[in-house]
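To whoever is on call:

I kicked off a structure prediction for a single chain this morning and the downstream step that reads the tokens threw a length-mismatch warning. I double-checked the sequence; it's 410 residues and nothing unusual in it as far as I can see. Pasting both halves so you can look.
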Amino acid sequence: MTQERLGLTAVAIRTRMRPLHVAVALEGMMLWVPVEKLFLSEIGFTAASVGVMAAAYAGVTPILEVPSGILADRWSRRGMLMLAAVALMSATLIGGLSHSVPVYIVSAMLLGVYFAMYSGTLESIVYDLVLEETGGSDAYQRVIGRIRVTESAALVVSGLAGGVIADLTSARLTYFLTLPFTALAIVAYLRFAEPRLHRAGEHSSLRAHVALTYRTIAQRGALLPIVILGALTLLIQQVLFEFGPLWLVAFAAPAFLYGPYWAGLVSTVGVGGFLAGVARLDRPEMAAIFAALMVSSSVLLSISNALTVVITAQVVLALLLSIASIHVSALLHDAVPSTIRAGVASGVSTLSWVGFLPFALVLGWVTKEYGVGASGWMVTATAVIAGALLIRLSTQRQVTPADGSPVAVS
């Protein structure tokens, strides 16, 4: 491909991706997220009821993820992202109107619906756009990386703005101020030209489609380590975002530190997206370095008595996971045809949620009984497995079978 052709292709991708970037940025302006725990305490939540709420949305998400992914494959991925935005609006509105624990749990369950519809679908639509414009997937990590930068920037801005708004007015108002941003995101999705690769071939029956999706997720062989690694990287990320602040509590960190800490943690999504295009995790030596850094940073969560070291270790680990998750996403999408891409990607996310539920319960109990240092070893053990799989995948080569769908083989 000539330089002129490459330039025209890059321009075409940027042009088509622009509405998606706008939609992702608007949808990420969830002003209520940084002050949610404050709002929950105002309407009567206790530590136990917060756990029930987390279990509610964490239980809904894995149930709906694969079905929503299959629907996106058979119907419209842009339409599924719009439905996800509607679910987010509903969750936000009900949350803002809540004055009791049961009503807010309904909001949390709708948030789980949003996560189910959004996960996997966004990656699939970006992958197919790159494939449609370039005829290959080489640019996928760079393009999805830019989306992660947009997501991260929106989270950081909304996190800082939400705290200021709650301080000047009330935590409840942040919910209602979020609604216009989400509504505008739906408008931006409408302006996005959806790739049609997933509808290019003959449609199989729904039963055959469902069977193929689940069989692909569960099959042994070359795809299995990709699926497991994808689930593990998402699992550790979920643990860091849900339980990372417990280290600050254990170290009696001052209140002002929580805002910069959270901004630093969520910014790793964007920085990781920026670096994913240049990190060559397909090379064994680079994969080994990443694995060593993942394990080392997780070990520091258990052995360090310095708050600055622990915070740095969390941020480094989150950054490494962000980069690795994009690499694994590329491997996964390379390995499956477009017709089942969103369903399979959603299935990987489902596995992470299924693993997160018992992991979170055990980690919470270990933290309560033995402290955060002991629970850090659980993170380390998971990082060791993820690192080993990352190294293994870097030694595999890619082939293209007759149907044109790349798969990894030993």
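Update from on-call: the warning came from a stale cache, not from the record. Cleared it. Sanity check on the structure: The radius of gyration is 21 Å.
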